[in-house]
Amino acid sequence: MRLIGAGEPNSLIAADISASLRGLGRGDDTIGGIALMHVTPQGFHQPFDAVVVTPHGVLLISGVELPGPTMRLEAPLHAQWKADNWPLVGSGTAVNPGAPSLAASWHLTQRITHEAGLTVPVATVLAVGPFVDSVVSGPGDLDQPVRVLYPTINGLKDAFAALTPPGARTCSAEQARAVLRTVDPATPIQPDGTLAKEGFASAVTTAATATPSAAPQGGSVAQSGSVAQSGSVAQSGSVAQSPSGTAPHGHAPAAPVAAASSAPGRPHPGSARPESRGAADGARRRSTPLRPLLIVVVCLLVVGLVAMIAVATAIASDSPAERGAPTQDLVIHDIDGFDFQVVAADTDRRCASHTYGDLRTAVAAWDCEGVHLGSYLTTVDERRAAVSVALFEFDSAKQAERIDKLVNTTGTGWALDLATDRDAWPDTSAVDTTSYRSATADGRLRLVRAVWLDGPDDVDDRSLTPVVERAFAVPMPHLR
């Protein structure tokens, strides 16, 4: 799955949607496709968190914010929703919080189907959050091309399988580009090679072109339109094409070949008119003085070309491109026997922009001096783990402790991962086993998130404890 960012996140669960799509890995090993992120199509007031184009269909994903974490969400498509038996109301006259997104998705579906000429399914996912343990659909809703779910990797996998199943009809590379242009004309054009890696069929247009007539056996038509001498005639009475490119009218007999005698006093069509000896000698004498001049010009051109090649080669050998661009040094931190390889590292004084959920609101309200961000890879017993660390600096220890208490409440948000934002993770698919930990010290709050990149997915987050504990000691970049 290849993600293309088209704008700023427009919902608090956009980070969860993005992370889950990235968790599908790159290429078509799991689910191939192009995901246009955080986009508002022309003429729409309702934004979409993702428009995902796959070889088997298109998925329109919209985030729907709930008042808070929910264990059981009753979410019929055209009736009132209930969160843990509490009724939820939509904005304005909407029957439920997902109604505006569902209406916008229906209109975009019509536009995509019409303008891109798709024959594959176009479906909708209403991604609810900040956290939902289970979703109960309304009667008959599962027969519709819509799913309401909390966006996890496995949840999206199930949605793709149910809404865009593999079928006889597929989306070609050109159709995929047409969908992306329809949604956002400013989307960068994706080449065939990129789309092929995501599973799209190559956009090869087979044009019906006229095939040149084969020359008769034993003979050929000269470029000037004269008939080469031959002892055979075209089969089935076919007429040779005239020099102008247009066929003669009617079924005229083929022109006589060299074996036939020409009319007296006329030169043969395939032969040149004989010249007198004197005229030929005169032409030869007139061309003789030009030959040395032509030879000199050709020699000068050859010498100049050789000199240009030599100069270009010398310049290229001294250029930075030839010497090779400097590569970034591989940075590895050894923490108690665990190697933490730096994937991405940076700092920023805009703390809230690197968070989501209720945490973003809280961080924006408090005095945060800056945030240190780091993404790391480590290996434990031949299993790779991705580690994301965010270190926030507050004016007082009391502020850090209050934020720490907030993030330890399920569904209140977390820090965004730097490597995910920069698309720096390797081509891997994460396992649904994630561990979240936090700690405070001297006005600093460190948030650590770790996830297995491979291995079995039936283990609990305690298997990540050794990784998380050492992540609290990983050095962070200095605040600029």
Unreliable stretches (pLDDT < 50, length at least 5) are: 205-288, 313-328
Q: Helical region count?
A: 12
Count of distinct strands: 16
Total individual domains: 2
Strand order of the largest sheet: 1-2-3-4-8-10
N-to-C CA distance: 34 Å
H/E topology pattern: EHEEEEEEHEEEHHHHHHEEHEEHHEEH
**Sheet/helix structural class:** alpha+beta
Radius of gyration: 36 Å
Largest sheet properties: 6 strands, mixed
Describe this entry's structure for a reader.
- There is one protein chain.
- With 480 residues, this protein is of the alpha+beta class.
- The chain has 2 domains: 2-197, no CATH class; 332-471, no CATH class.
- The strands form 3 sheets. It has a 6-stranded mixed β-sheet, sandwiched between helices. Strands 11-12-13-14-16-15 form a 6-stranded antiparallel β-sheet.
- It has helices spanning 14-22, 99-116, 153-163, 173-183, 192-197, 277-287, 290-318, 320-323, 358-365, 397-407, 418-421, 465-471, and strands at residues 2-5, 34-39, 48-54, 57-65, 70-75, 81-83, 86-88, 122-129, 132-137, 146-149, 332-335, 338-348, 368-380, 383-394, 434-441, 444-452.
- The longest helix has 29 residues, at 290-318.
- The model is unreliable at 205-288 and 313-328 (pLDDT under 50).
What topology does this entry show?
Blueprint: E1 2-5, H1 14-22, E2 34-39, E3 48-54, E4 57-65, E5 70-75, E6 81-83, E7 86-88, H2 99-116, E8 122-129, E9 132-137, E10 146-149, H3 153-163, H4 173-183, H5 192-197, H6 277-287, H7 290-318, H8 320-323, E11 332-335, E12 338-348, H9 358-365, E13 368-380, E14 383-394, H10 397-407, H11 418-421, E15 434-441, E16 444-452, H12 465-471
Parallel strand pairs: 1-2, 4-8, 5-9, 8-10
Antiparallel strand pairs: 2-3, 3-4, 5-6, 6-7, 11-12, 12-13, 13-14, 14-16, 15-16
Helix pairs in contact: 2-4
